[in-house]
Amino acid sequence: ATLDVLDLGFSLKHEQIEALKSFIFKKDVFAALPTGxxxxxxxxxxxxxxxxxxxxxxxxxxxxxxxxxxxxDQVKEASKLGLTAMQLGVHTLKDIRKANCQLIFGSPxxxxxxxxxxxxxxxxxxxxxxxxxxxxxxxLIYKWGKADKGH
Length: 151
What we know:
151 residues, Rossmann fold, four-stranded parallel beta sheet
């Protein structure tokens, strides 16, 4: 099956389709699209499409986001789409492993500074199912490194 013939129940814009195709085939994607265009939908749909196309049995996307409120909203939105989404710090490692998550949201600090999450990223089962890592709100990325510490 191709993305063009999968019945998602709604239409995607051309740019969303192209980004989604590239993402599920593990290519690097940079989607600089206007506010309200549906950028989040690209990675939210990736696990569904990858599974329907037989690319992965338990596809998973990691989302790195600097904003807690945004992560909370996106977990709720993903649930409305029928996806299993969890947030580091809200859900435990046991919850995430048991739930067979499709989307896992976490701050850069949570992913990098807590060993249990770094270890999760390095497990074979996790890596085998990982479609990709998304950096949301990328325009804030300069605040995540040395620039934030006055360097």
